[in-house]
Amino acid sequence: MNTEVLRIDTIATHHAAIMRAAALLRAGRLVAFPTETVYGLGANALDPVAVRRIFTAKGRPASNPLIVHVADPTPPTNVAAQWPETAQRLAKRFWPGPLTIVVARRPEVPDEVTAGGSTVAVRCPDHPIARAIIAAAGVPIAAPSANRSTELSPTCAEHVLKSLADRIDMVIDGGPCTGGIESTVVDVTGDVVRLLRPGLISVPMLEEVIGTVTQCNAFGQGSEAVARSPGQMAKHYSPRTPLRLIDGCDLMDDVLEAVAAGKRVKMLPFFGPNAMPNEPAAYAAMLYARLHELDAQAVDLILVETPPDTPEWAGVRDRLTRAASAG
Ligand code: TXA
Ligand code: MG
Q1: What is the DSSP string of 159-196?
Q2: pLDDT tens digits for range 128-153
Q3: SS3 for 213?
Q4: How many Å apart are CA 152 and CA 100, to the nearest integer?
Q5: Distance between CA 49 and CA 9 in Å, rounded?
Q6: Is the distance from the beta carbon of residue 155 to the nearest atom of ligand 1 less than 6 Å?
Q7: Ligand 1 pocket member 318 (CB < 6 A)
Q8: Closest Cα to atom 21, ligand 1: which residue?
Q9: In this predicted model, what pLDDT tens digit does every residue of 30-71 receive, in sequence order?
Q10: Ligand 1 centre distance from Cα of residue 309 (Å)
Q11: How far is the CA of 169 from the centre of ligand 2 (A)?
Q12: How many other C-beta atoms are found inside a 10 Å radius of the C-beta of residue 218?
């Protein structure tokens, strides 16, 4: 199929593009659109055939469930069987925004979305185009990141096309994403709230609203997070180029060593003319764009200076650790 690209830059193109996207989604087709975190690949979450198209386009294992996106920050009673007090407090504080909340599912949500599980992940994105498309479609929208499975997530329309051109029906180009890494995922179905994927909404921010949060996002075969959230398997979010995380004090030594071994090396340091920002939100906003850029160059190795081990950096560190574990 030919992927149609609609760019939104004026109010007039805005309305027409959103109506086209909504019509395609209602017809069971796939539309990639911007959210505040990364671009999502959307399908009607209540249409099992449409949802299966997502898995085919991405090459995603059917065992990995999808996040359902809703237009409004109100209790998502059309997909959630229960909306506990903790979910409500989190939604009130962080929606619209980069927080995904896992709750008990309603039977109307197809098994394709939940990977056959009894829960559904829900999020109200903080992006005017995403919310307008979901509202115009009039149905909840299942949307993973708009990339082939295990590849880097896309933070602009060009990244989506590089990975999925001719495998999806449409890309709505709304410019670059401001967040840059995928949403924080929490499970509120148990007695304790569990962090399944760290993101820019940090554990201290969550705990301020709901008290203690249990972290079970450490990855690896057999870990609790992988059992509860299959997308947490290690090989994920990976550039094609091997990537290593290096402490700042060792960085120059490692660069010199790799160069001496004849390797073409690029680094993402916190110092020098190409320094990465030393603030997590600004770092996250450019991380994937930098990795996509380096992947497109003839580079043998990417050396990344390890960010600080503090809760605010947990989301960024998680993505970097996964990227490093693939190579
Ligand atoms: O920021 C984001 O969350 C982006 C944008 C497009 O919204 N979406 C995204 O989707 O990152 P995806 O499919 O790449 O990651 C979804 C994550 C996976 O780790 C998956 O295992 C987990 O959410 N997940 C989905 N449904 C779940 C459920 N019912 N229980 C536990 N984990 C779930
Ligand atoms: Mg993804």
Answers
A1: HHHHHHTTTSSEEEE----SS-SPPEEEE-SSSSEEEE
A2: 999 999 999 999 999 999 999 989 99
A3: strand
A4: 20
A5: 32
A6: no
A7: no
A8: 231
A9: 999 999 999 999 999 999 999 999 999 999 999 999 999 999
A10: 24
A11: 19
A12: 12
d(CA 24, CA 47): 13
Neighbours of 155 (CB within 10 A): 29
Can you tell me which residue has the tokens 């949403």? Answer: 183
Task: Specify whether the backbone of 309 is left (phi greater than 0), alpha (psi in -120 to 50) or beta.
Answer: beta
Whole-number Å distance between alpha carbons of 82 and 222:
28
- Match 């996207």 to its residue by tokens: 21
- What would the two tokens of residue 298 be? 């003839």
> Residue 239 C-alpha to ligand 2 middle, in angstroms?
13
- What is the rounded distance in angstroms from the CA atom of residue 289 to the CA atom of residue 159? 8
Backbone angles phi, psi at 294, to 5 degrees: -65, -35
Counted residue by residue, the chain has a size of: 327
The per-residue pLDDT for 221 is 46
Task: With H, G, I as helix, E, B as strand and everything else as coil, classify residue 71.
Answer: coil
Task: Using alpha carbons, select from 181, 188, 71 the residue that is nearest to residue 125.
Answer: 71
Say if ligand 1 is within 6 A of residue 232 CB. yes
Question: 274: pLDDT confidence band, cut at 50, 70 and 90?
Answer: confident
- Looking from the CA of residue 120, the nearest atom of ligand 1 is 29
Q: Is 198 in the pocket of ligand 1 (CB under 6 A)?
A: no
From CA 196, how far away is CA 182, in angstroms rounded? 12
Q: Does ligand 1 have an atom closer than 6 angstroms to the CB of 84?
A: no
Cβ of residue 184 lying under 6 Å from some atom of ligand 1: no
